[in-house]
Design brief:
This protein is mostly helical. The chain has 2 domains: about 70 residues, Rna Polymerase Sigma Factor, Chain: A; about 80 residues, Winged helix-like DNA-binding domain superfamily/Winged helix DNA-binding domain (Arc Repressor Mutant, subunit A), CATH 1.10.10.10. It contains 7 helices and no strands. The protein is globular.
Length: about 170
């Protein structure tokens, strides 16, 4: 890769890394795993950087790469992943943050109940605020599949979350 393209890639990474990290966290629910996913995404992006002609569509391309890597990783390690812990110290939140932190933990637990595909759909529709057609393109499926799978995912979240926060409505997803 020539020096100008290397510099362009480096500038893109510096600007995009914080957003990529937050987005990866929404997908995986763990900051360390999010860092790994961002790293894998940037490696894949670097490998194809010279072939990319439309640098104005980088966000879309990067998002697609990240979601597909997330799905592939979860499929590959579905049965081999182990979480080893002796003990986890209890966090001591500030009183005003306690409710927000508690809500966030409940939400992350509810999201972990979704399948990898459902979690990816919820991420793309509600975190990235993409249209159904855009999500269908990224996930390589039909718009009706996006609608039905998102509806099922919202039903699971609604059941898991109960009365927490604003109600989730299926009409928000279609």
């Amino acid at each position: 890769m020539d020096e100008a393209r290397e510099e362009g890639f480096a500038r893109y990474v510096v600007g995009a890394r914080p957003t990529l990290r937050r987005n990866a966290f929404v997908l995986v629910g763990d900051w360390f795993a999010a860092d790994d996913l961002v790293q894998q995404t940037l490696i894949a992006l670097y490998r194809s950087w010279e072939r990319l002609e439309r640098h104005d569509a980088l966000c879309t391309y990067t998002r697609t790469v990240m979601v597909r890597l997330f799905i592939d990783e979860r499929r590959r390690h579905r049965w081999t992943r182990e979480l080893l812990q002796d003990s986890v110290p209890e966090p001591v939140p500030e009183p005003e943050d306690a409710t927000r932190v508690g809500d966030r933990l409940v939400l992350l637990k509810a999201l972990s109940a979704l399948s990898v595909r459902q979690r990816s759909l919820v991420y793309l529709r509600y975190w990235e605020d993409l249209s159904i057609d855009d999500v269908a393109r990224i996930m390589d499926c039909s718009a009706s599949t996006v609608r039905s799978s998102t509806s099922r995912a919202l039903r699971i979240l609604r059941d898991r979350l109960g009365g927490l926060g604003a109600p989730l409505r299926e009409d928000d997803s279609v």
